From TrEMBL:
<protein>
    <submittedName>
        <fullName>Putative dehydrogenase</fullName>
    </submittedName>
</protein>
<dbReference type="InterPro" id="IPR036291">
    <property type="entry name" value="NAD(P)-bd_dom_sf"/>
</dbReference>
<dbReference type="GO" id="GO:0016491">
    <property type="term" value="F:oxidoreductase activity"/>
</dbReference>
<feature type="domain" description="GFO/IDH/MocA-like oxidoreductase">
    <location>
        <begin position="143"/>
        <end position="289"/>
    </location>
</feature>
<dbReference type="InterPro" id="IPR050463">
    <property type="entry name" value="Gfo/Idh/MocA_oxidrdct_glycsds"/>
</dbReference>
<keyword id="KW-0560">Oxidoreductase</keyword>
<dbReference type="InterPro" id="IPR055170">
    <property type="entry name" value="GFO_IDH_MocA-like_dom"/>
</dbReference>
<feature type="domain" description="Gfo/Idh/MocA-like oxidoreductase N-terminal">
    <location>
        <begin position="9"/>
        <end position="133"/>
    </location>
</feature>
<dbReference type="Pfam" id="PF01408">
    <property type="entry name" value="GFO_IDH_MocA"/>
</dbReference>
<dbReference type="InterPro" id="IPR000683">
    <property type="entry name" value="Gfo/Idh/MocA-like_OxRdtase_N"/>
</dbReference>
<dbReference type="Pfam" id="PF22725">
    <property type="entry name" value="GFO_IDH_MocA_C3"/>
</dbReference>
<dbReference type="GO" id="GO:0000166">
    <property type="term" value="F:nucleotide binding"/>
</dbReference>
Length: 389
C-alpha cells in the first residue's frame, strides 16, 4: 500500500567476497522487484582485515562494519546473521548467532561434518530462530517450474535422475592451494562445493536418497601455496608447494526412495565447462532437462505428444506463469545468476515475517552433509552405503 512504511529487518553479514557480493546485491535489489513484507537494511558487515572490510562496506552499501564477528552478533540493532565465510567457520558463527536469538542464513555446505551440522540444527531449533542454507539453484525459475511439472505428475513415475556439476577453474596445475582445496577449511573438494548443489537439486526435485556408491580422485596432489582467497581466478605466488587434501572429482551412483536410479558427477577438471550445473530426469511419461549455462530454458519431452512432432522442445521460462519472473521484465527478457539469490532472500524474509520455516534450511543442510560424508566413506570402502536420517 502506498505510504505504508514496511517493517525493517536488519542484516549483519560475516564475510564479503564472492558470496558476500551475491548476497549484498540480493538484499539491495529485493525491494525493487518483490513486495516482501520486510525491508532488508544492510546494517553491518564484518571481516578481519579492516582495510578490506571497509572497502567492501562502501562498495556494497553497508551502513557500518566490524572486524570481529562476535561483536556483530552482540549488536542489538541486528536481526539476521548472514554467513558467507569459508566452511570451517559456519558452525561456530551459526551456533553463537542462534544463541543470541538471530535468524541465520548460511552458505553451503552447512559445516565440515555431520556432527557439526547436527549441532547447528539443534541450536537453531532450541532458540526458535529461522534458518536457511544457500542452495540458490533451487530458485532458478526454470528449476521451480520443473518441480511444478514433476509434482503435477507430468513425467509420471521417475526412472532416472542424471545430475552433473562441471567446472574447470583449477585444471592448471599452477593454480594455487586456495582454501577450497584444503580439507580442514572446506570439508571436501568438488563434492562439497558443487556436488552439494546437485544433491540438493535432486532432493528438491524427486525426493530422498536411499543408498549411494561412489569413487573420487585428486588428480593434482600438490599445488603452489597461493593467496588465501577463495577466488576462482587466484594466482600462485610462491615456489613452495602444499598438499591438496580434497577431491578434484567425484562420481556416484544412487538409488532414491521412490525407486529412481541416480547418476552424479562433480568435477573441477572438465575443460571448457565453466559452471555447467545440469540435470536430466526421465519418467514414464516424459523427460525434463536443464542446464545452468542456459538457465532460463527448460527442455521437455512428453510421450503423449502427437506422433511425427515428438521430440524435446525448449521452454523459455520467462512468461508470467513461470515462478518469480513476472516481477521482472516482459516475456523473453531473461534474468541471471544474481537473481537466484534475490528469490532465496525473498523466501527467507517471508518465512521470518510469516513465521514459517523456509526451505532449504538447516535440516536440508544436515541431510546434504549426511550424503557428503557417506559419499566420501563409500569411495574409501568401495561399497554401497544406506543413507540414514
Ligand atoms: C565455486 O566452485 C563456486 O563458487 C561454488 O562455491 C558455488 O557454490 C557455485 O554456485 C559456483 O561455484
Amino acid at each position: 500500500m502506498v505510504g505504508v512504511k514496511k517493517k525493517e529487518i536488519r542484516i549483519g553479514m560475516v564475510g564479503y567476497q564472492f558470496m558476500g557480493k551475491a548476497h549484498s546485491h540480493a538484499y539491495r535489489d529485493l525491494p525493487f522487484y518483490f513486495d516482501n513484507p520486510l525491508k532488508p537494511v544492510l546494517k553491518a558487515i564484518s571481516g578481519r582485515n579492516e582495510e578490506a572490510v571497509k572497502e567492501a562496506q562502501k562498495k556494497m552499501g553497508w551502513e557500518s562494519y566490524e572486524t570481529d564477528w562476535r561483536a556483530l552478533i552482540k549488536r542489538d540493532d541486528i536481526d539476521v546473521i548472514d554467513i558467507v565465510t569459508p566452511n570451517h567457520t559456519h558452525a561456530e558463527i551459526a551456533i553463537a548467532a542462534a544463541e543470541a536469538g538471530k535468524h541465520i542464513i548460511t552458505e553451503k555446505p552447512l559445516a565440515l561434518n555431520v556432527e557439526d551440522a547436527k549441532r547447528m540444527l539443534t541450536a537453531v531449533r532450541k532458540n526458535g530462530v529461522k534458518h536457511m542454507i544457500c542452495h540458490n539453484y533451487r530458485f532458478v525459475p526454470a528449476v521451480q517450474y520443473a518441480k511444478q511439472l514433476i509434482d503435477e505428475g507430468r513425467l509420471g513415475k521417475i526412472y532416472h535422475y542424471r545430475g552433473s556439476y562441471l567446472q574447470d577453474f583449477i585444471i592448471d596445475p599452477n593454480f594455487p592451494l586456495i582454501w577450497r582445496l584444503q580439507k580442514e577449511i572446506s570439508g571436501s573438494g568438488a563434492l562439497g562445493d558443487i556436488g552439494a548443489h546437485s544433491i540438493d537439486l535432486a532432493r528438491f526435485l524427486i525426493g530422498e536418497f536411499k543408498e549411494i556408491v561412489s569413487t573420487m580422485d585428486t588428480f593434482i596432489k600438490e599445488r603452489p601455496i597461493g593467496e588465501m582467497t577463495g577466488g576462482l581466478s587466484a594466482k600462485g605466488n610462491s615456489e613452495e608447494m602444499g598438499e591438496v587434501t580434497v577431491d578434484d572429482a567425484t562420481s556416484f551412483l544412487a538409488r532414491f526412495e521412490n525407486g529412481a536410479l541416480g547418476n552424479f558427477e562433480a568435477t573441477r577438471f572438465a575443460a571448457g565447462n565453466r559452471n555447467k550445473n545440469k540435470f536430466e530426469i526421465n519418467g514414464e511419461k516424459g523427460s525434463i532437462r536443464w542446464d545452468m549455462e542456459n538457465m532460463n530454458n527448460l527442455e521437455v519431452y512428453f510421450t503423449d505428444d502427437e506422433e511425427g512432432v515428438q521430440g524435446f522442445r525448449m521452454i523459455n521460462c520467462t512468461e508470467e506463469v513461470h515462478p518469480y519472473v513476472g516481477a521482472y521484465w516482459p516475456a523473453g527478457h531473461i534474468i541471471g545468476y544474481e537473481h537466484t539469490f534475490i528469490h532465496l532472500m525473498d523466501e527467507f524474509l517471508r518465512g521470518i515475517a510469516g513465521d514459517y520455516q523456509p526451505s532449504p534450511n538447516f535440516e536440508d543442510g544436515v541431510k546434504n552433509q549426511i550424503l557428503l560424508e557417506a559419499i566420501e566413506q563409500s569411495a574409501k570402502d568401495k561399497k554401497w552405503i544406506e543413507i540414514g536420517s
